[in-house]
Every structure is written in structure tokens, then in C-alpha cells.
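User: Can you model how 6-chloroguanine sits in this protein?
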Amino acid sequence: MKRIDVLTLFPDAFESPLNCSILKRAQENGIVEIAIGNIRDFAKNKHGSVDDKPYGGGPGMVMMPGPVFDCFEHVRKLSAQEPRVILLTPQGQRFDQAKAAELSSEERLILIAGKYEGFDERIRLGLGAEQISIGDYVINGGELAAMVVIDAIVRLLPGALGDEDSHKDDSFSAGLLEYPQYTRPEVFRDMKVPDILLSGDHGKIAQWRREQALERTKRWRPDLLGETEKTES
Ligand code: 6GU
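Assistant: Here's the modeled complex, given as C-alpha cells:
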């Protein structure tokens, strides 16, 4: 089974996201094991300190290496599998669908969520960690970012979605946005479902969906397209 451990100062933040819907079912069905390690459990002094002022001065606090390393060493021993280690930080490489697919094939991940002022650099160096960001903006901590990464990975695991194929048509999986979807009723407030979708002609429907996906990507996310696709039909 695949295993994901998360090291965090805010374990409570993961309770509800990990216990609903797809993520809950995937854990119940043994598709993934997700465990949360509390960095504060490894604080050294009686105050439970896990961060301190930056050497050289400056605003904010920096996460101390000791509690993170000790939490990491503890959590790593919970399974024999060597983990791939990832820090969630705005300094990281931007997360995308290709990265989600790559990480979904790993047997074991340890994700480390930090406060936005940052990690002591020796955490990255000493743990040989790679860094991931979920986008070019700053949020208050790596927790939400870790949940985004976990959610994107788990839904790609075989058996996680009821229907094995349902992620294959996702936006981005073919480098394009998704085609428009319709369900009943056939007419809603004078807006009708396109005739082609009612035609029963699966070849034509597939072609129409490809065209729509390309058209919407050109219009809304031209940055996703290569030079050839921009000039196609
Ligand atoms: Cl991973 N952490 C924080 N604090 N802010 C972010 C981020 C991560 N990714 C984008 N913004």
C-alpha cells in the first residue's frame, strides 16, 4: 500500500479534509495510508518551542531544525519503505498535474508543512528534501498546500475514484481544459443541451469534445498550449 506521512504543527487542520469523500474512502479501502506527525511533540524545551528568531535579524520566526528532524526520524521508522521527502514552501517548484502523476507512482512520501516565514535551511539540506509550491501567492502555512497535493495524488491512485477512467478526462490530463458537461434536464431556463450529445454518435461526440476542449483552452488558458495547437483548427 502507498503511504503518505505529513509533518505539521497543526495536525487538527487535516482532520476534516482527510475524513470526507474520496480521501476518506481511499483510506478505508486500503488504497493509501495517511498519517499525521505532530512536530510540536518533538519540541525540546518546556515551552514547547518549535520556532525562533532568524539569525541576522529580520521579521518573523523560523522553524527550528531539531523538532522537525526528530519528528522526521520518528515518522520515517513507521515504515521500512524509503520515502521521497517534500517540503511545502512558496520557494518550491510549482505543483501541476504532471507532478501529481509523478508523485502518485511513489510508494512513500513524507510531506513537511511549514510556516510561511520559513524553515531553517538545514532542514532542506539535511533531509535531502525537494520543495513544492502550489502557486505564486503566499498562504499562511504549508498545511493547505499539503492537502492540495495529497488530494491531487490520491485521486490518481487505481481504485480511488469509483470509475477507473474518470480522471482520464480531467482538465490538464491531456494538457487541455475539460470539455463542457451537461446532465438532465435537456432544456434548463431556455438553455438546451447541444444536439450532438443526444445524437448517440460516439465518434462525433468524441470529436466535438476534443474541439471544445481545445477551443476553451485557447480562449481561457492559452498559456497551456504549445505552438502547434495554437494554430490548429
Ligand atoms: Cl507550499 N506554502 C505557503 N505558505 N504558501 C504557498 C505555498 C506553500 N504554495 C504557494 N503558496
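A couple of observations from the model: The two ends are 45 Å apart (CA to CA). Residues 202-220 form the longest helix (19 residues).
User: Helpful, thanks.
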